[in-house]
Design a protein that fits this description.
This protein is α/β, with parallel strands linked by helices and 242 residues long. It has 2 domains: 161 residues, Rossmann fold; 67 residues, Putative phosphatase, domain 2 (DNA polymerase, domain 1, Orthogonal Bundle), CATH 1.10.150. It is built from 11 helices and 5 strands. A 5-stranded parallel beta sheet has the order 2-1-3-4-5, with helices on both faces. The longest helix has 18 residues. It starts with 13 loop residues before the first strand and ends in a 10-residue tail after the last helix. Bound molecules: calcium ion (CA). The site of calcium ion has 9 residues, from loops.
Length: 242
């Protein structure tokens, strides 16, 4: 992958990572849990829909299914019950496997001295609480943005704007790594250089159309190309202490 997509103004200090489908290989379990819950409540949905809604909060996903099926939104009580069922099924199905290549990307990012933050639409305590165990010392809880921190979920830019604030950087000092169309839309709307990693079943075109600046088929290939992206930004790796 060439680095011609890197704008001259980009001067990265922080990388904002989405969580599901980027750091954890959890999307198949999310899609299965959502789809089974939707079927139980007679909501119109296909498993692929949940890759399109990915990144949105649980509440807005449930509202979307209600509008589509019944032409009105869900009540707060309905949202609570349905989200609880989905979360319980997700916990049953999710392997907790780290996305292949994710540790390597993080190692590369750290080698260039960049700060690492998580910006997720997830409200799944099971995964959020696991982050420090899976990636020890990489992400600070106070600098993590989750569904509990924002008024508006992705595709609204708020989660990524909050991520910039927590990192203390400007949009052109950050890079976002995202796998979902709604996440890419949110990051692009926040004015941040966005790298898409297409780890799911959607066509690349859907991610490009949301404004992704670069696209990789998986985290392994992003890790391999990281040095080129940094070189295009004029950055070299930090010297290793001997
Ligand atoms: Ca995601």
């Amino acid at each position: 992958m060439s680095c011609k997509g890197v704008p001259p103004r980009l001067s990265p200090k922080a990388v904002l990572f989405d969580m599901d489908g980027v750091l954890y290989d959890s999307m198949p379990s999310h899609a299965r849990a959502w789809h089974e819950t939707a079927v139980k409540y007679n909501l119109l949905a296909t498993p692929e829909d949940f890759y399109l809604f990915e990144g949105c909060t649980g509440d807005s996903t449930i509202d979307e299914l209600f509008y589509r099926t019944f032409r009105h939104g869900a009540t707060p009580e309905e949202k609570e019950v349905i989200y609880e069922e989905k979360a319980a099924l997700f916990n049953k199905y999710n392997s907790g496997h780290v996305m292949k290549g994710a540790q390597e990307v993080l190692k590369q990012v750290k080698a260039y001295g960049l700060e690492t933050l998580i910006v997720t639409g997830s409200g799944q305590h099971s995964l959020i609480n696991k982050l420090n165990h899976t990636f020890p010392g990489v992400f600070e809880r106070e600098k993590t943005v989750t569904a509990f921190d924002v008024q508006h979920g992705k595709p609204h830019p708020e989660p990524y704007l909050m991520g910039l604030e927590k990192a203390g950087v400007q949009p052109d000092e950050a890079i976002v790594i995202e796998n979902a169309p709604m996440g890419i839309r949110a990051a692009v709307a926040a004015g941040i250089f966005t790298i898409a990693v297409n780890t799911g079943p959607l066509k690349d075109e859907i991610l490009w159309n949301e404004g992704a600046n670069l696209l990789y088929p998986d985290m392994d290939s992003l890790a391999k190309d990281w040095g080129n992206i940094m070189a295009a930004c004029g950055l070299s790796p930090l010297k290793q202490e001997s």
